[in-house]
Structure formats: structure tokens, C-alpha cells
Specification:
The protein is of the alpha+beta class and 494 residues long. 22% of the residues lie in helices and 21% in strands. The chain has nine helices and 20 strands. Strands 10, 13, 16, 17, 18, 19 and 20 form a seven-stranded mixed β-sheet that branches. Strands 1-2-9-7-4 form a five-stranded antiparallel β-sheet, with no helix packed on it. Helix 2 packs parallel to helix 3, helix 6 packs across helix 7 and helix 6 crosses helix 9. The protein starts with 5 loop residues before the first strand and ends in a 9-residue tail after the last helix. 30% of the residues are buried.
């Protein structure tokens, strides 16, 4: 199926195929969470037709056409490659659509008519796979031997001259599955759209094998990942225990095609979970983390919150300890600007930001999100409180726009809502610091020369030691602690 516009001969209507856009995030795939339309429905231009989950958030997908829905090509819950056709519309001149291009025109050339739809897809949005030539030459000359070689004796390693267009077309999860099962995709014809190799195609190779194993499963390949059993152990025994290539002994284990045992569930890694995992690994193994802790008496801050909640200026606005901490971070950043910076490895530069785009880690049903409040340092306390409320509500509803997830400079994570006192938070990639605020607990505390019951909180600050020295990180944490111990001390800091 292509994205070409198909005109009906002798009529004023045509069929338009809508491809999944990249939504401006540079992603390769997205999951269709829910369709808001059905085949036969009449839709208007920019009407919301589906909810699509990217690696970061659930995004509402508007219709680029006005017309009638002819076909929904993908079901809800399906992971679709960017550029794949997802819905076909019947449009006509009466709907205001321009006439379809002629056959001589390149059908895929279009101008993006909606914000975030990315550039026009080239060549139908999918790489074309070059046909494999396996015709045997009549004479067994040297050249003929080279032509027949791919069909009779495939090389164990890919030819470096082969371009991306020569590789079998498949998605990253399918390629990983093939590697885990020892299935070679070369020469395999996919049953998906545009000959896309699917998971079912890979499993079919094992089903067609006489012994239930991949035809090349016994080929020695130290780099091929092992297929994991439900308990994390190779299904065919520990490394080195099974037969090697050339051994006549049967396999020592049941093989990776055996279904997992009862009571074990495998959840596909995709969407936000996949993105979060990649981001955390990249951060943890790129930035040298340092974490410092500070336990403080926040009784004056809790008294301030009680006063603010009864103030007319904050009427209808939810004010929490996070509100005060967020303001304290902005004030402390102004005194310690190195914590509001990033490391540019390619340019070998430290990038310092004048605006504080304050990220707030939010636990959502779909995973971790860190949307940010732009220019938080310029907001008043009441404005910051309202922005925090709107940000967390939108994140938990899965409606955070991509613009709110990009451009963060420093972050806060509130682990105290889960009853946790302290931790070692991992930096959001591209940022120099993240502050974790623990639970506020009533504890015996030294106060004015005696022991009293006070409200106590622990702050945990992780920072990138390439950017932030120990002194700078310590001064920043001390400044935040000073404000929370005695909010009136702000007057000495600004």
C-alpha cells in the first residue's frame, strides 16, 4: 500500500491515505491507543481522530482531511512505524480539498499542513528493498560464482558496502527477536505492509524448521544475544554447556521457542517505558553522579503554607511543600548558576542557561514523565503554584504536549509523596542537577537549646560532577535548605 492519491475516474472524489506523522519528535514508531472515528464516519479538517502514544506522551492526532473514513488500516493497541498508512479518507471537491495530483506528479510530495507533522515523507515514507538476484548463470565462471554466492553460501557478517536500502525491512523489536532466536532476516519476505517483516514472520521460521529451532541456531556467533527464559537464564542451558557447531549431540535445553512457564508474564518494552529506560541508562553511564543530603527543620515553611492557604491571593490555588521548594530552587539557581547548565560533548563546551526551565518528575500510569515549567524564575509564587498544578494534572492524564517535555534545565522529584525520606535520583539527560525532596515528618529535633517535636525533611541533590564542583553543589543545597528553614531569609538572597 502506498500513500499515493487515488482518483476515481469520472467522479469528483478521491481516496487520500494518511500516514502516521513523526509528530516533530524524531521518533520511529508510535502506538495507536484509541480511535475516535470508525469506518464510514464523516470527519472535518483538524478533527481529533486518534490518541497516539509516543515515547514521551499520549498525543491527540488531528485529521489532515475533511471527508469520509474509508479504512482504518491499524487497530487500537498496534505499534505503527512512522510513515505507515493508518487511515484512508474519501474526499471531494465540495469539502474544500484541492484536486488530487496527476499520475505524473510525485504523490508523496506534500507540504505539512499541521504543526508537528514533520517534513514530507520521501519515497512513500518507507525504504525500498532491493530485489535479491538468485538466478544462476549458465557458465561456472568466476563472475558467475560470485553472483550465485549469496544464494548458496551466505557470509556470516554483513557486507560493509550494503546500504540501508538493501537490508530486510523490519522494526527494531522484530530485529531483536530475530537476534535472540538466531533467525537471519536476509532472504525472508515479510507479510506486513510493503513487505515489512513482522514478529509472526520470525516465529514462522522456527515453526517451519523440522526441529523447532532456527536453521542457523547452531552457527557459532559470540555476538548474538541469548534468548532469555522467564527467570533470566538461557532456555538452552548455561553458556558453554550446550553443543557447539559441528557437535552431533542434541540440544541440552528445550530451546527458546518453548512457551514461558505458568505464572510468568512478559510485558513488551515500548512507548514511554522504552524511552525512560534508554534515557536513564544514558544518563547513569555518561554523567558522573554525585549525591549530597541535607536534613532540615521545615516547621517555618509548613507554618507559611498554612498562612498562604488562608490568603485571598491563593484562593482556589493548591499550595504544597513542592511549591515552596520550587521557588527556593529558582532563587538558589540565581546564586549558583552552574547547576542550570548542560555538557555539550560534541562542541566541548559547557552551555549555561539564563532561564530556569524547571522539570517536575511525575509518576503516571504510563510511566515517568518530566515536563517542565518554562522560565520558572520569572514567575510569582502564586503563578508557580498554578503552573505546578496544571502540569501534574496534564501529565497524569497523559496529555502533556511534546513542547512541555523538551528544554528542561534542572529538575525536582518529590519522593516524599510516597513516604520516602531520601534517595539518589538520576539526572534527567542533558541537565546538571536534580533535587529530591523527602517526606515531611514530625520528629524530635533540637530547637532553641531544647528537644521539641518539629517538622523535618531530607533533601537529596544529585549533580553532574563534570559541570558542578562539590563546593557549588553544596552551596546550592545549603541555600535551598536555608530558605526552607526560614523563608524570611529570602530577603537576604535577592
Amino acid at each position: 500500500m502506498t500513500a499515493a492519491t487515488l482518483s476515481s475516474a469520472g467522479t469528483s472524489t478521491s481516496i487520500r491515505e494518511f500516514r502516521l506523522p513523526d509528530l516533530g519528535e524524531g521518533l520511529t514508531e508510535s502506538e495507536i491507543v484509541q480511535w475516535h472515528i470508525a469506518e464510514g464516519d464523516t470527519v472535518e479538517l483538524n478533527q481529533i481522530i486518534a490518541d497516539v502514544e509516543t515515547a514521551k506522551a499520549v498525543v491527540e492526532l488531528p485529521s489532515p482531511y475533511a471527508g469520509v473514513v474509508v479504512t482504518l488500516h491499524e487497530a487500537a493497541g498496534t505499534v505503527v512505524d512512522v510513515g505507515a498508512t493508518i487511515v484512508s479518507f474519501r474526499v471531494g471537491s465540495e469539502s474544500g480539498e484541492v484536486s488530487p495530483p496527476s499520475e505524473e506528479e510525485e504523490p508523496a510530495k506534500r507540504e505539512p499542513n499541521l504543526v508537528g507533522y514533520g517534513a514530507a515523507v520521501e519515497k512513500g515514507g518507507r525504504p525500498q528493498r532491493r530485489a535479491r538476484h538468485t538466478t544462476h548463470a549458465p557458465a561456472p565462471g568466476p563472475a558467475s560464482t560470485r553472483e550465485a554466492l549469496p544464494a548458496t553460501a551466505p557470509e556470516p557478517t554483513p557486507d560493509p558496502a550494503v546500504t540501508g536500502a538493501d537490508r530486510p525491512r523490519s522494526t527494531p523489536p522484530v530485529r531483536k527477536l530475530a537476534r535472540d532466536l538466531g533467525v537471519t532476516l536476509d532472504g525472508l519476505t515479510g507479510t506486513g505492509p510493503n513487505a515489512l517483516i513482522t514478529r509472526a514472520d520470525v516465529l514462522a521460521v522456527l515453526a517451519d524448521s523440522p526441529d523447532g529451532h532456527s536453521p542457523n541456531a547452531d552457527r557459532p556467533d559470540a555476538d548474538r544475544p541469548h534468548a532469555d527464559s522467564p527467570d533470566g537464564v538461557r532456555a538452552d542451558g548455561p553458556a558453554g554447556a550446550g553443543p557447539v557447531a559441528g557437535d552431533s549431540a542434541p540440544a541440552s535445553g528445550p530451546g527458546p521457542s518453548v512457551p514461558p512457564r505458568a505464572g510468568v508474564q512478559r510485558v513488551p518494552i515500548r512507548g514511554m517505558r522504552k524511552h525512560t529506560a534508554a534515557a536513564m541508562v544514558a544518563s547513569a553511564f555518561t554523567a558522573p553522579h554525585v549525591t549530597e543530603f541535607l536534613t532540615i527543620d521545615v516547621t517555618p515553611t509548613m507554618e507559611l503554607l498554612a498562612d498562604l492557604r488562608s490568603s485571598r491571593a491563593f484562593e482556589g490555588t493548591r499550595v504544597t511543600p513542592l511549591t515552596i521548594v520550587a521557588k527556593a530552587v529558582c532563587i538558589a539557581i540565581a546564586r549558583n548558576p552552574t547547576l542550570n547548565s548542560s555538557w555539550d560533548e560534541a562542541a566541548q563546551e559547557i552551555v549555561q542557561y539564563s532561564d530556569v526551565n524547571l522539570g517536575i518528575a511525575a509518576a503516571t500510569p504510563r510511566g515517568l514523565l518530566v515536563p517542565n515549567i518554562k522560565e520558572a524564575q520569572s514567575r510569582t509564587l502564586v503563578d508557580l503554584a498554578r503552573a505546578l498544578g496544571a502540569l501534574t494534572e496534564t501529565a497524569r492524564a497523559g496529555r502533556t504536549p511534546p513542547t512541555d517535555l523538551a528544554g528542561g534545565t534542572v529538575s525536582i522529584t518529590n519522593i516524599g509523596v510516597f513516604g520516602i525520606d531520601a534517595g539518589t535520583p538520576i539526572l534527567n539527560p542533558g541537565e546538571a542537577a536534580i533535587l529530591a525532596m523527602g517526606a515531611v515528618r514530625s520528629m524530635p529535633w533540637e530547637y532553641q537549646g531544647a528537644v521539641a517535636l518539629r517538622s523535618v525533611m531530607t533533601l537529596s541533590l544529585s549533580f553532574d560532577h563534570r559541570l558542578v564542583d562539590g563546593e557549588q553543589g553544596s552551596r546550592f543545597l545549603a541555600d535551598v535548605g536555608t530558605i526552607l528553614r526560614n523563608p524570611a531569609m529570602v530577603l537576604t538572597m535577592v
